[in-house]
Amino acid sequence: MVFLLQLIVSGLVIGGVYALVALGFVLIYKASDVINFAQGEFLLIGAHLALTFLLVFNLPFIPAVLGALTVAVVLGAAVERVVLRPLIGEPIISMIMATIGLSSALRGLLQVFWGTETRTFPNIFPQDAINLGGVVVSQVYLWSLGIALVLLALFSFFFKRSIMGIAMRATADDQQAALSMGISVKVAFAVTWALAAAISTVGGVLLGNINGVNISLAHFGLKVLPVVILGGLDSIPGAIVGGFIIGILENLAGGYLDPLLGGGVKEVAPFIILVLILMLKPYGLFGKQVIERV
C-alpha cells in the first residue's frame, strides 16, 4: 500500500506538470487549429534561461524565473509574428510543418548555446523529505505539485474572468465573430503563443529541479501529446484532467509492469491508454464533437 501511494504521489506531481504543458498545446490549438510540435523546445529553453539567470547572472531564484518568463514571452510572441502569422490562411498542414521545422531549428540552437550535457539547479527547495502517513515524499515534489495546481487555477480564472482571456476564447470559437466585435485576432494569437511559452518555461523549471536539464527534456513535449488528445484538443479542463490521469497511470505502469516485463512499459503506457480511450471517445474525454454536413 505504501508503494502504491508513493507511485500515486509521484504521478500527481508529473501529472501536474503534464497538465501545465498540455495547457500550452490547447491554447494554441484553440486559437489557430495548430498543434505546436515545438512546445518541448520552449520547455527546454525556459529551463536553460532560468539556469543562466541563476548561475551566470547570480540572481535569486524568483527573479531568475521572472527573467526567464520575460524572455520566453518575447520569444513566443516573436515566433507567432515571424513564423506563424505569414501562414494565416494557408492550409493547416503548412502551419503544422512550420512548427516541426521550428522544433528542429530551436533544438539545434539550444545545442550551440548550451550544449548537451546535463545541468542541475542549485538546491532551491528544502531537501528534507516529509513523511505523509508512511509515504516519504521529497519536498521538491510537493512544491512542484503545489505550484502546478496554483498556476492551473490562476490560468483557469484568467480565461473565464479577464478581458483578454474572454477575447482569446472568443477568437478560438469564431474568428470572424471576434473581429466583428472589435477583437484583434492578431493580438489574441500573439498573446496565446506568449502564454504557451511562459507555461512551458514554468514546466521546464519544475522538471529541471526534479530531473536536471538536458536535451532530452525537449522530448517531454511529445510525451504530453497523449494528455492533450486524451482530454480533448480544444478543452482546457480536459488538459488538466488528462495530465493527472496520464501521470498517475504512467507511474503505476512503471512501478508494477516494468519489473515484470523488463522495462520500457512506462514510456509507451500513455500511448496505449490513449488508444484505448479514443476507441470509446474519439474526441477525447472533454473534446467538442464536430459534425460537418455536406
Descriptive account of the structure:
Strand 1 and strand 2 (135-137) form a beta hairpin. The chain has a two-stranded antiparallel ribbon with strand order 1-2. Helix content is 73%, strand content 2%. It contains 13 helices and two strands, in the order H-H-H-H-E-E-H-H-H-H-H-H-H-H-H. It has one domain (2-280): ABC transporter involved in vitamin B12 uptake, BtuC (Orthogonal Bundle). By secondary structure, it is an all-alpha fold.
Keywords:
mainly alpha, 2% strand, two-stranded antiparallel ribbon, single chain, ABC transporter involved in vitamin B12 uptake, BtuC, 294 residues
Count of distinct strands:
2
SSE arrangement, N to C: HHHHEEHHHHHHHHH
CATH architecture: Orthogonal Bundle
CATH fold call: ABC transporter involved in vitamin B12 uptake, BtuC
Radius of gyration: 19 Å
Mean model confidence by pLDDT: 83
Structural class estimated from helices and strands: mainly alpha
The percent of residues in helical segments reads over 70%
Class in CATH? Answer: Mainly Alpha
Q: Specify the biggest β-sheet.
A: 2 strands, antiparallel
